[in-house]
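Two folds, back to back.
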Amino acid sequence: MAILSRARRVSAAFVKIADTLVADYDVVDLLHTLVEESVALLDAAAAGLLLVDPAGDLQVMASTSEKSELVEVLQLEAGVGPCVDCFRTGAVVTIDDIASNGSKWPQFQSAALSQGFMSVHAVPMRLRGQTIGALNLFGQEVGPLSAEDAAIAQAFADVATISLLQERALRESTIVNDQLQRALNSRIVIEQAKGVIAHTANVTIDQAFALLRSYARANNQPLYETSKRVTERLITITS
């Protein structure tokens, strides 16, 4: 019964993600759905997602917590780490014991351990020969993901990749760059809005994002539009 229940949950997660694959879908909301479903269904304490921008630089696009976002930002600043290696090689990178096996990346190792993460599983977002980012799963326990969870994580990453590299974008690379740039620009405004809500509502950054996303969905607005209205003080979102 437990197996059936989990199978249904995985199926529901794919349906939820697939629901975003429509014209003019909200890229940022898709990526946040991806990391949230990864944590909900897989043996991970937190998840984050990196995307490459048109200039070839990796950017943090979604995370389930400020802790995992901090670890990924520090990796990007250092230019090294398992998640960065995953993107550069297009191959899965698993560190089942960061304390013992993460010394190759001392800055990442220190940051991850300081946030309570003991393991990481990085999955490339890759289609054919093109890698556009990485989905990263952080664990609070030592040990690798099970083979089943690793396969589901890769499937989630594949769905997101296909959604970003649709057929029209594959035919015209400038469309891919435009779409990724819009997502990156949206992220900046969303981060600003989270700060505004955290201050005005006296909540944490994570809670601020939950309020922002809930408001956007309740009012059938893209996250970017709602965030823009928050930063321009056209609306006030409180708990």
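---
second:
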Amino acid sequence: MQDGTTAEATLARELGVEPLGVGAWAWGTSQLWGYGKEYGRREVGEALRASVASGVRFVDTAEIYGNGASERIIGEVLAEGGFPEGKEPVIATKFAPLPYRFSPRSLLSALDASLLRLGVSQVDLYQIHFNSPVPSPKGLLDVLAEAVKSGRARHVGVSNYSAEAMRRAHERLERQGVRLASNQVHYSLLHRKPEIDGVLDACRQLGVTLIAYSPIAQGLLTGKYRPGDRPSGLMRRYGRAFGEANLRRVEPVVDELRRIGREHGREPSQVALNWLISKGAMPIPGAKNARQAEQNAGALGWEMSPEETERLDLATLGWR
């Protein structure tokens, strides 16, 4: 993968999807995101269908999202059907190596439980949610390879792995004849750490797709929030990112996104997502309803000029 318009997410190509997905953390998660109060089962079902209808088929969830509720909701929508043949959602989920899981083989039990909630026999991508000394990382990767060999997963990846840990994981899986497909990390215009901590370079060198979560900074890059605003939802209402000082700091970045967006008939968030795609990343913004899902899809089908990309690079140097 390389910077610029020729960059591509390898995993997206192999899965036959666009280099943009939808993150399902908020689907069924009530305390942090307000599921059941501000939006509910109907809205997130519509968000999934609108995503797929807009060409965004990659859906990222996890067993811990809503304590399994996110996976169950996706499973219900899949069971309802109605997706065109060959255009069904492509599902990714994750295993959380929490301290009470002492055996690497707990990964397969967790995967079987996820498959049951999703109502499928195989997921397209199965990921380790975060790097942990428990269970044994090497043993966990060996069992992750077994998930592919047993047909439970098409591809496997990791999340929140450093460059060094990712290289070790890549090497361990390769010995098993399995390729490390992805590393899901926090990456956006307001969080450019993967560019300086070696993760982005390692992804490019190994042919691993960087899946970018929080790609519009929990909504900060939409232009929706201004100094003086305090959004609803626990994550935003009490997070420092939405405090007065940070909202003022973000304003010039959003103004630049608006300027570039006007040149292409796009919204600020769509420009922010397109910037990530131009870096070779695969962003997975959330969507709580059909309107948000359709808006996310507006990041596809166009390209920024190198000069516009550079303007955003310079405008966000403080976030590297």
